[in-house]
Amino acid sequence: MDKIKQYQDEFWMKILWYREFEETFEFVQSETPCLDYMPMEILIYIFSYLNPADMFSVMLTCKRFLEAIKYPKFNRNWILSFSERYASQFAIPLRIFTSTTCQRIIPAVAMHTAQVDNESSEEFWEYYGHNLKEIQFLSGLLRKEEFVNILKYTRNLVTVKIEANNMFKNWEIKRCGYDPLRRLNMQHVRNFSLARNNFLSPDIFEYLMMTVPHVTTIDLSNCLSIMNPPERNKFLDYVLIYLKENASRIKSLNFANTPTDDFFLDGLGRIENLKLRELHLTFMGSTKNNNFGIPILISSQDQLEKFDLTASPCANDLMVRMICNCMHNMKVLLLKKCHNVTDFSVRELHKLKNLKSLEISDCDYVTDTGIMEGVLYGKPNNKMTELRLGVMTNLSESVVLRMSYYYENLNVVDLGGASNAVTDHSIQMIFRHMKFLRFLNIESCCKVTDFGFTGVESEYSIRKHSIRNLKGLQVLRGNGLYKLTDFTLIDAFVFNELKELYFARCNFTYDGIAYLVKNCPSLEVLDLSECSKIDDDCVELIATKLPRLKTLKLNNCDEITEKSIEIISANCEDLRNLFIRNCKINFNPEDNLVYMRSLRKVVV
Amino acid sequence: MDIDRPSDPQVSVVSSDGTMFHTTLKSILLSGTIKDMIEHIGEGGVENMGAIPLQNVDSKTLEIVIKWIEHHKDNIQPTSEEIKDKTADFIDPWDENFLEMDLDKLYNLITAANYLNIPQLLWLSTRKIAMLIKNRTPQEIRSLFNIEDDWTPQEIEAVQKENQWCEEK
């Protein structure tokens, strides 16, 4: 008994100590509790449910909330994106981010343009640079000296992306003597991307890699396409030499859309100690030799967790079977547009027990049999969250029916263009079972009608399953569902989380849009292109009721006039992209739109 | 010590204003704070433990908490790591109904759930506040929660200017 008493005393002593020192306990007994007096940890907990658009509202509410939003974990969702404003002559005003005025530090910067305000540029990098974890150069020519000058302030970078087509065009490497690149040493960089560069040379690659001695992820996707083959091979040979020397460190490689040949893949497969986690390839070459090229690579990389073979015309059944048999750690497998893959290998996919995400879109030879036996077979795999089966016209309803209860917990389902598989009946089963869907693509599945979406067959029948069941839906792609009418929007569209909605080529009118904008207030991207009944009044509704709208697409809408442009420029405060191609607007829309400070891109 | 004994002994807790509440061991163990304490007491301690003083929770709030833990005593409680998918909207109708209370009570409930370390209750109650914030303008948030606007127009403009260059990754 004494022992218990002693422990209790100690315990309460501890609590009392907490009360004195921890903010948490100060407010517990405050007379009038109020949200802005909540302990910081609780505010952070509450705000972690919100999406970025909500966070912008919250940070403008009061200073204490802004403090909570500064929490580093939240900052990871954002990037400072310096792209030129629409039709604006002004350079990007970096001075608002310098020491005296800056309210918030965001640890990632993307430079879409080199056109910045030069006077404050140095000051900006000096003040902001050491906070940055990620930097992206996405276009524009930077001289080597300018580049070095920026990076000398950014000591803590983890991710560097240099993805500008001709960035290195005029860079010369001085083999002898002093080169400014030698001054750089980015110790913390782990991810390094040179994607979309067509002017790479072994010299530049060597010097750049020297500046990032601890890199683990290298992205060389979309590169080298306009280089002539001898130069390209010389470059790839050098990459192989580099990988050989650093094999044990490299964990992820990306060569998507970069022309690589069998000799390169063979070389890659024969590097000792290279155990990749992630690999992206577009496999173009083909040899009949089973001991050369890709088979060697697949059999050597048994640790692979993500394998992206998107758009590989020469990926075949043999390869996919090898993947199913060798790579047991596989979590993400993407086989989009691998036209040579058939049921023969797809039916073995069930051997990959750890799959989280699978894409077999656009593989013409894959049918019901392959999917039923390979993907929807045996004990369901609980880890699966993403399944993409787009543009598969061979699939029938029964695949979707089975999927809807077999993989109830999927977050992402892509059935875009699977026009035979998605019917009123099968989509009803999706709405019935798959309550955790965040992303749904059913583009061009034109068999779907109002009944499929709302579950209401006639006035007197019992309501079945409505799309409203998908309470967490964030993205819905429904372009070309022309049988839907206003009834669907009025009856079924109540989504608190819906951010992106694509309904091009549909027949909605003013009445439906009125309900849509009222019940889906989070919309940021809205596509109503080629909807013939969208007129100025609809645009007025959209512009006034959707304050968070960032992208609006109204291509080929014949009814909209100059008045719409006026309404948009007066009301949409946060609009970034506007698409009004082929609209019958007579005057030059730039007159009104140049005053919109948020606008970045207008496609006329 | 094995705390999952078949019998479910009575336990008493006392609120900050001195009101005593009776509940069962199984229910009270949903609180991580109390579970930690009981686990340290040792064999045979639970029956003789006496009332547990909870000096940071008043009687009104404690009554609500006890109602909740008694309803959920047989459910498997997820750990805080498991409460990941936070936008999931599917909560038990009983809980939905339970959380119909005014904001003051809700604030007290959140602080109590945090102090008593009941992850599921903390998740439910903070989520409720977050849902109220969703899709509102700063002005609406201020009037809803009765928050004073402490920004100057210049400061607001500075934050807005910065936000114009911010994008979601």
From TrEMBL, chain A:
Coiled coil (UniProt feature): none
GO CC, any one term: SCF ubiquitin ligase complex
PROSITE patterns on file: FBOX
Gene Ontology terms: biological process: SCF-dependent proteasomal ubiquitin-dependent protein catabolic process
Keyword Thylakoid: no
Presence of keyword GTP-binding: no
Positions of the F-box domain: 32-81
Swiss-Prot/TrEMBL keywords: Ubl conjugation pathway
The organism's place on the tree of life at top rank: Eukaryota
SMART domains: FBOX, LRR_CC
Pfam families: DUF7885, F-box-like, LRR_6
Protein name per the record: F-box domain-containing protein
Automatic annotation (TrEMBL), chain B:
Pfam families noted in UniProt: Skp1 (PF01466), Skp1_POZ (PF03931)
Record-linked Gene3D superfamilies: Potassium Channel Kv1.1, Chain A (3.30.710.10)
Keyword RNA-binding part of the UniProt annotation: no
SKP1 component POZ domain ranges (all copies): 11-74
Lineage: Eukaryota, Metazoa, Ecdysozoa, Arthropoda, Hexapoda
Domain of life the protein comes from: Eukaryota
Protein name: Skp1-related protein
Alphabetical GO biological process terms: ubiquitin-dependent protein catabolic process
CDD domains linked to this entry: BTB_POZ_SKP1
Pathway info: Protein modification; protein ubiquitination
Organism: Polypedilum vanderplanki
